User: What shape does this take?
Amino acid sequence: MKDDPIAKVLDDLLKLDDIFACMVARQNMISVMPSDDNDSFKPEVHDVWDIIHRAMDDVFSVIREYSQAGLTEMEFRLQDYEALFYVFPDTENALVAIVPALANKGLIEVEMENSRREILKIMEEPEKERELATT
Amino acid sequence: MAEEKLEVAVGMSRKWDAREAGKEVARSTIEKLSSPPDFFILFSTIHYEKHGGFQEFLNGVWDVLPKGTHLVGGTVAGFMNNNGCYTRGCTALAVSYSNMDVAVGVGRNTKRDPDKAATKCAEMIKKKLDKSNYINKFLIDITSSGIVPTMPGIGRRKVITSRLGGALLKTLNATCRRLQIGPGREDEIIDTLSKKLKDYGIIGGSTVDDNRWERNFQFFGEEVLTNSVIVLGFKTDLKWKLNSTFGLKPTGIKMKPTKMTLFDCAIQKIENEPAIDSYLKKMGWGKDLLDEGMHRRTLFYPLCYKKDGILCPRVLALVIKDTLVFTNKVPKDDDMEVYSASGESLVNSVKENLDSYEKNSLKFGFIVSCCARLEALGDATFKVHEIINDFYENTPFLLLFASGEDVYRPGETPVRLNESFNVANFY
Assistant: This one.
């Protein structure tokens, strides 16, 4: 995943203090992780990762059901954390971030949206161009 | 007579490394100009503090920017320009114009002696610009915002209801002045600036971090400063127009502060009752809402008063024991009213503001919006960007999300605002 341009977008997002973990995922599948996989997730999230991961899968069943109907964002709070889901339009995939429950979420949301737009642009690039860009 | 030549450019960088970002923001801005800029306004988010530091950031800028350019700026919660909307990165606006004289000023120790700092700034501007023959006068002020104190055994909490809070309040006035923490005292700065430079239109705002109010920095030439006010003044033949909008509606819930502290920024009593009890009762809120989410909740319910007919919203920053602490001054024995905002009303106020402007001959725009609006709107801020981009099209603009805003029009009352949207357009 090291040369994946989407992983690089996730790397950027993860550098923000209040992003504890982030990924592009769909139900039962994490499609893209940051370049160092979950090694770069902040330590705070490790203890609760399993339960958050399970809860995420349940949210993805809702995303799968309603993304075609225009569902663009979802979030849930679990213990001291919030999971933010930014859905890629008309797909079952979402950009997911785990943030502290008391984070200044407004500011984070702006960079989540910038990342979603950046990833969408990458997804729209023809596969060949993407391969060239990563070599 | 020399031909008049005006060039305005906006640039930015999203690089993480402070020096590289400094170079890129300078290069991407001035490469659009054919002659050196007369001034360079630079804003960045707080992130470069941990990625090389702000001195390195400025060093990077000066690797590219012609020596002697007037540079002012500081840290902000976020920014917008023609490219987009960001809460990480840096941006700049540069102007090169033949019919303009420019001066900069700096005043230090704003939290200890704001009047002295503002006076120093005003003197620097007057000294250079009093000789200028251009008629239209304008000033941009950038001031260090308030800092939430770190309290032993408590940390940086926004709601402190324990006994420690009471003890803390007793010493807070003296501690804030000595350590230069607590309120930014920007009300006093704009009052002094507008008295000393009464013919200048003024727009400004306070530097801040990522809305934690732990630290913030100001940029002045090659220096990175704290607890300072920086001003950029210019006299020119360009015309300016300044407009403020809010998107707030009165709720009818009124309260009169009767006992104040902390440079008049904190209400200890409302109608002679402990402020927090009275506030919660009037709002119809239970004490269970007194948690760390209080600040975010009240972003949609600012407490407002009118200063010579101009609405002045105040955002609740902290609750310490029974006391409500605001970011700026609140009037004692004056009627205040809770106003309400919605995402829709905040977005609509942007359109309402820009609808008051002509597009013809517009040269550039400089906008100061409150970081509380950014926090309240979150990713709906992109709707604001669409409206602004539709208005400016290819005309350069820069919007900063500051921690409180300053506005003054000659002949009117200077105001320190929160939760406002302020546009200065130049023609």
Remarks:
- Residues 6-146+183-245+344-426 of chain B form one domain.
